[in-house]
Amino acid sequence: MLSTKHGKLIFFIIFLFILFLLPTPRLKLLDGVTGLPVEGYKIKIPPVAYILEPFVGTSQYFWRSTNFRFQTLSWLAWIVIFYLLFNLKRRVNLLKELRGLFKVIISFTLICLFITLAPLPKYSLQPESSEEILVDLHSHTTYSHEGIATPEENIRWHLAHGFDVWAITDHPRTLEGARRAKEIAKEKYPQAVIITGQEVKCYTGKQGENFLLLGIDEVVDERKYGREIAKVTHLVHEKYKGAVIVPHWWRKKFHTLEKLANSGVDGFEIYTARVLGPEESIREAIKNVCQKNNLIMIGSSNWHGWGSASHIWTSVHIENWSNLNNKEREEAIVTALRNRKTNLFKVILYDRIEPQNRLRYLFEPFVGMFYYFSSLNSPQLLSWIIWSIIFYFLLYLIRIRPIFLNLAVIGIALLLFSKGVIFLNLWVRYLEYNETLFVLGNILLFSGALLLIMAILPLVHKKLQVTSNK
Ligand SMILES: [Zn+2]
Predict the structure, then answer these.
(1) The pLDDT of residue 441 is above 80
(2) What is the sign, positive or negative, of the torsion defined by CA atoms of 216, 222, 226, 227?
């Protein structure tokens, strides 16, 4: 009796159990260079992250993906295919069909917005030794044209992930984000050590290679140097006693790795969250050049405020750390970079080995779900079961009282609206630097308005019908 009535729910829970029992590797702390498990660190998962696992896990899955644009498109395509398969048989009313499809696409977009903007609990890393220092040498604030996190949000995000030191590397030509963050840190977060940096692009024509200039104290106008990278690295090394790192080289591959290594750069990113990851062969090529030329390899967040979770840390061994003041700590990291103390650096990932190739992306929902669900631990599985029951009964409630759906949509619309207002308000403060806050704020206002109309119009329509029938 029960099994027929709640068949879908029970089927889903059994499906979760079967995947859970499969011997798929769980997420582990891995050495980013060797790919092997790493000792001496602990991942700390806050209890609230277990409670919210379906939300946290979805966001983690999304941001760990190496080609999230393609993977998201794959999800959308499969959802549309399944929707059409299940509905076309039953109905032939094209208008109704299109309306249904429109609602499916809107729901999908809302999930994407949630993953991109919701502040979710974070996993933090904890080294066992007090001389292993966690650093992130590449991050942004609202002073970058597409950054949506304020300097203070940047600080809180890094502290929540367990970072001791991080660089703010806004682009194109400003150090304001780092300066502002340092002021705030001095007042409210004395443990935060922030390195002043700048991300520049050395151009010829429209093409250019990105560089992270770390430990500088003046804006560097890279336009003066064109494509003469050696002049930029020389300036940063000699004048500022700083260091130069090449971020996400695989995105443009503008210069050869050898040319960059010979131009005086101190190292390369081999992992960057939020930038489509390099294919394994390209990562190998970067590692080879670094090993051959004794250059530093780092993994960084490149966090602009989009998405809440990170799974990449760089660990640096610095002796006597607890006796250094913040200024000395900042210098210790930059000096280790500039002096290319490669043996002090380690890239640490909280990840698992999964196939990453075009075939996977084509069938992403199946492959992704398989890896995600089969790697859950028992509290996470329990969380999924409880949330499936909650969602199941919410859907049931909506079916018997459709007004609840309208109310939920009105709630979401108001949330989008207020987020939109917040972003537009921020945009006014960062007018000179930022372009994205304006666009994002308007998109949120527009989607809020659209949802509001969609939720209220049917209610008004019904009310009119009722009064006209009287
Ligand atoms: Zn960047």
Answers:
(1) yes
(2) positive
